[in-house]
Amino acid sequence: MADRWDAIKERPLGRLLRGVVEALLLLSLKEGLRGVYLKGETPEGPLVLAMNHHSFYDGHLVWLLARRRGKPISLLVSEENLRAFPVLKLSGALEAGRVREALRRLQRGEWVALFPEGTMGYPGPLRPLRRGAGWLAAKAGVPLLPVASRVALRGYQHPDAFLLVGEPLPPEGDLEGALRGLLLELDEALKGTHPREVPQGFLEILRGRRSLEERVRPLVRLLRP
């Protein structure tokens, strides 16, 4: 069942508000993170994107992945989380209970994303997954896309975000095994890389806030005798 935010989404006011919301999402990423780094590519076509959930920025990062590909995306979230900021529906947030609407959007060729662990947790091993992602993909006849995420404070003043995109899976595929393997691969890459370096194969897709020392370094060099 549609709500008033669905009704205004394509009206001039809705498009204006959506632009404001998405500008704020981008600003939040740039101000809060030093950078966002990606390894792997997202495929064309509709899909159900499933990512682990341990960070405030996870929803922002899902939105950024879709924006980079130029795909409309809907992130399934609890109704409770949307009550305070319902305007986020204009940029894709959708109540988790609106399954029929999620299926309609997939059938239109869009992406639907969710956090199959269900809730935000400590950034450790993958927790048991709920079955919603596979069920949704099966009903819509679209693939599952596992994505591993880590947001970590490493060698600089602000945290870095890393996204590792896996291979698309059929709806009946082993999402938990794939996502667990991606997280392990990502963690091993971060452990094996100096905290001030980017792991091999990761590309910067968003440049964020530099540390104070990075900002003053040119001045120090200029004043050095």
User: What is Rg?
Assistant: 19 Å
Discrete helix count: 8
Low-confidence stretches: none
Shape descriptor? globular
Q: DSSP strand (E) fraction?
A: 15-25%
Query: What is the CATH third-level topology name?
Result: Glycerol-3-phosphate (1)-acyltransferase
> What does the largest sheet look like?
8 strands, mixed
* Whole-number total of structural domains: 1
Helix/strand class: alpha/beta
In spatial order, strands of the major sheet run 4-3-5-2-6-7-1-8
Portion of residues within helices: 40-55%
Give me the CATH architecture, please.
3-Layer(aba) Sandwich
- Residue-averaged pLDDT: 92
First and last CA, distance: 69 Å
Indicate the CATH class: Alpha Beta
Order of helices and strands: HHEEHEHEHEHEEHEH
Q: Please count the beta strands (DSSP E, at least 2 residues each).
A: 8
Keywords:
225 residues; alpha/beta; Glycerol-3-phosphate (1)-acyltransferase; 8 helices
Characterization of this structure:
This protein is α/β, with parallel strands linked by helices. It starts with a helix and ends with a helix. The chain has an eight-stranded mixed beta sheet, with helices on both faces. The chain has one domain: Glycerol-3-phosphate (1)-acyltransferase, CATH 3.40.1130.
Q: Helix and strand layout, with pairings?
A:
Elements: H1 4-8, H2 12-32, E1 35-39, E2 47-51, H3 58-69, E3 73-77, H4 79-83, E4 93-95, H5 99-107, E5 111-114, H6 132-140, E6 144-152, E7 160-165, H7 175-191, E8 203-207, H8 212-223
Parallel strand pairs: 1-7, 2-5, 2-6, 3-4, 3-5
Antiparallel strand pairs: 1-8, 6-7
